[in-house]
Design goal:
Layout (H helix, E strand, L loop, with lengths): L18 E7 L5 H14 L7 E7 L6 H10 L3 E4 L1 H5 L8 H7 L5 H9 L3 E8 L3 E7 L11
Parallel strand pairs: 1-2, 2-3
Antiparallel strand pairs: 1-5, 4-5
Helix pairs in contact: 1-2
Length: 148
């Protein structure tokens, strides 16, 4: 995760059953556009914004003004993943167009799932003209001796 901001647990994954919002943005994405998309995506799945533990995206997109503003508004860090890591994540809604543009067929869904380390996609990608968002939930920690 070169250039990534790691969640507080330090292992590169978000834990505790919290939510990760995966986001993809074009250069033209605005702060308002992305934040409204995130809020609509969460609300559409009946998920609370205060459960968001991190935003996840493609390496280099974490510095985009819209991503920084959304992270600040949600009080969440941004985790970045290289295209190769995102390409290794199986997603329900791959996009050949995205694959040609950035080297992975998914950014939002793949980043959300990558940051959860085996979590569940709760809200598949939703799009606007310049942004995409998807939401995954992290697995809950298990107690010692507890089996899946």
């Amino acid at each position: 995760m070169h250039g990534a901001v790691r969640p507080p647990d330090g292992d590169g994954f978000v834990h505790d059953g919290g939510l990760v919002v995966g986001v993809g943005v074009r250069a033209t994405a605005t702060e308002t556009e992305l934040l409204e998309l995130i809020r609509r995506t969460l609300a559409g799945a009946g998920l609370p914004a205060d459960a968001v533990r991190a935003l996840a995206t493609l390496t280099g997109k974490g510095g985009h003004p819209a991503v920084r503003a959304a992270a600040a508004a949600l009080g969440a860090p941004v985790i970045e993943y290289p295209a190769g890591a995102l390409a290794a994540v199986r997603v329900p809604n791959p996009s050949g167009t995205v694959g040609e543009a950035v080297g992975t067929v998914s950014v939002a869904e793949a980043a959300a799932l990558a940051a959860t380390g085996g979590g569940e996609l709760l809200a598949p990608k939703r799009k606007t003209a310049s942004a995409t968002a998807a939401v995954a939930r992290t697995p809950h920690h298990r107690n010692a001796g507890e089996h899946p």
